[in-house]
Each structure stands twice: as C-alpha cells, then as structure tokens.
Design a protein that fits this description.
The protein is mainly alpha-helical and 208 residues long. 77% of the residues lie in helices and 0% in strands. The chain contains ten helices and no strands. Helix 1 packs antiparallel against helix 3, helix 4 crosses helix 5 and helix 4 packs parallel to helix 10. The longest helix is centred in the first third of the chain and has 31 residues. The chain is globular, with a radius of gyration of 19 Å.
Length: 208
C-alpha cells in the first residue's frame, strides 16, 4: 500500500531538488536571466512549481513500478484482496499514492516559500526537512488537550503533513490529527494555495 515506504525517500529528494531550484539560482544570480526572458515573474515561479510536480509524479510512478516488480517476483501478493477501507489492495496503493502526492506538494509549497525568504541552500534544506520530520510532534503539541483552542489548532498546517500516514493508519493517527482524511486533504490543498501565493508574493518583491 505504501510502495515499500517510499514516501520519506521521495520527500527528501523533492526537498533537496526544490530548494536547490531557487536557492542556488539566487546565490549565483542565474534567476536574473530567467526573469529577463520571462514576461512575468509568475511564469517563472509557476513553471518551477510545475517542474517539481512532474518530478513528484515520476518518483511516485517509479515507486509503483518497483512495487509491482517485487510483488510479482520476490514477494507475491494478492492485489485484489480486500484491504483497508473495504477496498482491494491495488486500489489502496493507488489512492495512497495520490494522497502522498498531495502531501508532498504541501511540503514543496513550504520549501518554495522558505527558498524565497532565505538564499542559503543549506538553511532551506535543513528548515524544510525539519518541517517534514518534526511536523507531527509540533502538531501533536498544538492539538493536545481539550481547550477551546483545540478546534482551531487542529487546522494548523503541520497537521496536514500527516495526511499520508493517517490514510494508511487511520486509527493510529486520528486521535492525533482530530480530522478525517477528507478534512486533512482539503486543508492540505488550501495550504498549498496559501503557501504558493505567499511564496510568489515574496518572490515578486525580492530584490536581486
């Protein structure tokens, strides 16, 4: 279902590539050439976002191919066996992949925002990986307890990064996120739009 736990490996690759796309170009002033050739800064920013999205699709596609390869040779499985959510395993895998693409693009939108704020590639990678790996702990601290603020805290962006994990293990994560899979997916999409917009605004106003 999780394509042999490829999620973390794919996310690390995307974070490194995504941060490098901006940070290194800022450091080397190569971004100036792109801005000069493009009619609008939005095109440059959007094209980079689409490029990393294509990377995301390719990496997840390779993970699926790798999984099918192992499942037909070393570790045979019954793809039509009913698994989670009363669905066949193969359906679970493709849905989990789609969910993980959404989650990974949320992280990437954060990477792009940080990259426009900070020119250091090393700092951007470190900060982005911190969001990726410590998001669960931060979200748990924010939603812990039953105060009046809990209903608002559960909509924090760190919570949305747990979407993939909750889809795979709903019972184990719902008590942490306090949101359904659908609510996490909606929140992730909304935050992607928000972080993309803020990242673009910073990018447009940045002085090189």
């Amino acid at each position: 279902m999780m394509t042999y736990d490829s999620t973390d490996a794919i996310m690390i690759i995307l974070v490194i590539v995504g941060s490098t796309m901006f940070s290194m170009e800022f450091q080397n002033n190569a971004i100036l050439t792109l801005l000069y050739k493009s009619p609008r800064a939005l095109y440059v920013y959007l094209n980079k976002f689409i490029t990393i999205f294509i990377y995301d699709l390719i990496l997840h596609g390779l993970a699926i191919i790798f999984t099918f390869g192992l499942a037909t040779t070393i570790n045979p499985v019954s793809w039509l066996a009913v698994y989670q959510y009363q669905q066949p395993l193969i359906v679970n895998m493709f849905l989990a992949t789609g969910v993980d693409i959404l989650t990974s693009m949320l992280i990437i939108s954060v990477v792009f925002l940080i990259s426009t704020l900070i020119n250091s590639n090393a700092v951007v990678v470190t900060a982005s990986l911190a969001v990726m790996f410590f998001g669960e702990a931060i979200s748990t601290d924010l939603t812990r307890g039953y105060s009046a603020l809990t209903s608002l805290a559960k909509w924090n962006p760190f919570n949305m990064t747990l979407l993939t994990h909750q889809y795979v293990n709903y019972g184990g994560y719902y008590d942490t996120t306090l949101l359904t899979n659908g609510e996490l997916a909606l929140g992730a999409f909304v935050y992607i739009v928000i972080f993309f917009a803020f990242g673009y605004l910073v990018f447009r106003q940045k002085r090189y």
